[in-house]
Amino acid sequence: MNQSSLSALHTSALTSLPLLARGKVRDNYAVGDDRILMVASDRLSAFDVIMGEPIPGKGVLLTQMALFWFDKLGHICPNHLTGEAPESVVTPAELPQVQGRSMLVKRLKPILVEAVVRGYLAGSGWQEYQATQSVCGVPLPAGLTNAAKLPEPIYTPAAKAEMGDHDENITFERTVEMVGVELATRIRDLSIQIYKEAAAIALTKGMIIADTKFEFGLTDDGELVLMDEVLTPDSSRYWPVEGYADALAAGTNPPSYDKQFVRDWLEQAKVNGKAWDKTAPAPRLPQEVITKTAAKYREALDRLTA
Length: 306
Hints:
Blueprint: E1 19-22, E2 26-31, E3 35-40, E4 45-46, E5 49-50, H1 58-73, H2 95-98, E6 102-106, E7 109-110, E8 113-120, H3 123-132, E9 134-135, E10 138-139, E11 149-155, E12 158-159, E13 168-169, H4 172-179, H5 181-204, E14 207-218, E15 224-227, E16 236-240, H6 244-250, H7 260-268, E17 270-271, E18 274-275, H8 287-305
Antiparallel strand pairs: 1-2, 2-3, 3-6, 4-5, 7-14, 8-11, 8-12, 8-14, 9-10, 12-13, 14-15, 14-16, 17-18
Helix pairs in contact: 1-8, 4-5, 7-8
């Protein structure tokens, strides 16, 4: 573990490059007009609210996990990595903010479709299935239970929301209206292929990828490129295989490698004697929740790369 991950980075403050945008987790800086330096901070968002306390080392773990997957999946689809060292574009004084937690990537034209693939019934998908026996317009067999494996992975896209809003589930037909039938079909087919390969790899490491979301962009000459983060616990639902069968039998959510600890704690948190209303500012996270969440992210990476 490098030195920079030992002290948490809530917000990066590079002055040698122009800031393009701050997302929930990543700070993006312009490097010329054709590249972006993506710095993964240790911020954590839950219920679309950024917590005041960072999770030490989280940005490093997310970046290492994304790099692991980009490496494994490069034969399916080109990705946005330039292959150049992020450290090469900042000043020596700024290295601690960048080391281990950054990617130097190509600047692409983002496609405003979140490519969501679900291999298991969980979260909002389970909620929707109970009401309609389908998820985002995809009909499913009767009799499925919470956390059940689907007969085949399904593609359930979402439209990217403005900062602070929830992404909105949409139908495949709607993505065709947005980007045209050829591109919409290619994104769908690639997303399912990437998910299937990744899920098979994860299973050999004792982990289930229940669902995930991918983001794509286009180069100037129209090539489709996988971008942003890929298959991290922030963008995917990871379950350890041990404990899955018991949870499935009981109809409960399996234990997971993500911010579930934080969500569970926030669900019962009180602000001025009342339940937190899920708007900013968030309640202060106790040290125990921070430590447990950091350990979960670390365990996910350790299992995957073992």
